[in-house]
Design a protein that fits this description.
The complex is a heterotrimer of chains A (about 100), B (about 100) and C (about 220). Chain A is mainly beta. Chain A contains 3 helices and 5 strands; from the N terminus they run αββαβαββ. In chain A, strands 4-3-2-1-5 form a 5-stranded antiparallel sheet. Classes of the chains: A mainly beta (about 100), B mainly alpha (about 100), C alpha/beta (about 220).
């Protein structure tokens, strides 16, 4: 991430271990939060840093201030009601902070 | 509305371990993208946005690098690097030249 | 200053081709999108945005990348615990220690153990650690893989010939943003006396994506 992005980053709200809920939103445009994970609750696995917002970069804007990006871990059995596998199986998804609420 | 490219979790067929040796033109499309990003004329987010804008039927029918060159063209037009008219005339020229050489 | 488009690299293909991996040769025709590629490239060169040389060099750079680079990283991690620790903690720095490209994205290395198996996907497009593994295979970018591996990873892994016990936890990693993932497979049994090169030879691309595991006999 560039020095400019670091300087203009939104403060990180969450820490590893925090429970978070992915916002449910049905909006048009370029979005990196997959449909299948919206509305689900998971746990912050790590903070990945802060990056210019792709939802802005896609339209030739700066994407600043940079958004904290997390890896969020979800239990597969909670994401998919019909999941076949171990209760311990997980799926990790990278999600920007503005898509996350405390849970 | 769920976008066509956002396919995680949807029903789909058996995964066939397909691959092919990339053709030179495909590698050149890849190189164009890398270099345009490097000189600040395009972001990967714009590449994705303009791929996502391809209609569902065409998205599934087009090959990977066909989607890319379509998207790169769109982005360059949107940014005013090239015009639709220039591209149309150049494509006609390329085709005519190729036919000429093929004889 | 035109670069002449002697595109006799074949691999042209019809739009209705149901098998994207199999491209019939058609040296004498250019597809619509091949024409577009030549036109865009020539326009960019004419306008001074890019040079023909830079494009050629970029293609050569990508041609030089292959899963052998990633395999080298894995083999070193198997024989050097300090390197492995650094690889898991600060992946890009560890690459530089091996004389490899740092890479344009942050590298996240996920370790397979007796209890955990990791598998990587990009459901939204085709994110992949290209500077370490080269260009991704077609199946990685396919609708079938991208749709299904997040929801039924065990079934998909079985289609690749990998049948995992219920006692093994499966972790799927959806590469949706700025991280790129490399699976560090478990070192196969029976390789205790092997050297680094011999070890690297059993680490395939699929092992580093997580749809296969290396074996001493592979």
């Amino acid at each position: 991430m560039s020095a400019a992005a670091t300087a203009a980053a939104v403060a990180a709200r969450f820490r590893p271990g925090d429970r978070v809920k992915v916002r449910w939103a049905d909006v048009p445009g370029h979005i990196r939060t997959p449909w299948y994970i919206r509305g689900h609750t998971g746990v912050i696995e790590r903070l990945c840093g802060a990056y210019p917002n792709p939802e802005e970069l896609a339209y030739t804007r700066s994407g600043l201030p940079a958004q904290p990006l997390y890896r969020v871990r979800f239990a597969q059995s909670q994401v998919w009601p019909d999941y076949v596998g171990s209760r311990a199986d997980t799926i990790d998804v990278e999600i920007y902070q503005h898509w996350l609420d405390p849970a | 509305m769920r976008s066509h490219h956002d396919m995680g979790g949807l029903p789909a067929g058996r995964v066939e371990a397909t691959g092919h040796d990339y053709a030179l033109w495909e590698k050149r499309v890849d190189a164009l993208m890398e270099l345009l990003a490097g000189v600040g004329r395009m972001t990967v987010d714009e590449l994705r946005k303009n791929i996502e804008a391809i209609g569902p039927d065409a998205y599934d029918r087009m090959t990977y690098y066909e989607r890319w060159i379509h998207s790169i063209s769109q982005t360059l037009i949107q940014r005013g690097v090239i015009t639709i008219d220039e591209l149309g005339r150049k494509m006609a020229q390329v085709e005519a030249r190729h036919k000429e050489e093929g004889r | 200053m035109h670069e002449h488009p002697h595109d006799h690299d074949g691999h042209s293909h019809g739009h209705s081709d149901p098998h994207p991996g199999v491209r019939p040769d058609a040296d004498d025709t250019l597809s619509y999108y091949q024409v577009m590629e030549i036109a865009v490239r020539e326009l960019l060169i004419e306008k001074g945005v890019l040079s023909a040389d830079a494009i050629r060099r970029e293609v050569e750079k990508m041609d030089a990348r292959s899963p052998a680079l990633g395999a080298q990283v894995i083999a070193r991690a198997w024989i050097d615990p300090a390197f492995k620790a650094k690889l898991l903690e600060r992946g890009n720095d560890a690459l530089v220690d091996l004389g490899l490209e740092r890479g344009p994205y942050r590298l996240v290395v996920v370790e397979n153990t007796a209890d955990v198996h990791n598998v990587v996907v990009c459901t939204l497009c085709s994110c992949y650690p290209r500077w370490l593994l080269g260009l991704p295979p077609d199946w990685y970018k396919s609708r079938n893989y991208r749709s299904r591996v997040v929801r039924e990873p065990r079934a998909v892994l079985r289609e690749f010939g990998l049948d995992l016990s219920e006692r093994v936890t499966v972790r799927v990693h959806d590469s949706t943003a700025n991280m790129r993932y490399l699976v560090l497979p478990a070192r196969p049994a029976g390789t205790e006396r092997w050297g680094e090169q011999q070890l690297a030879a059993v680490v395939t691309r699929d092992c580093m994506i997580g749809v296969a595991v290396p074996t001493a006999s592979s």
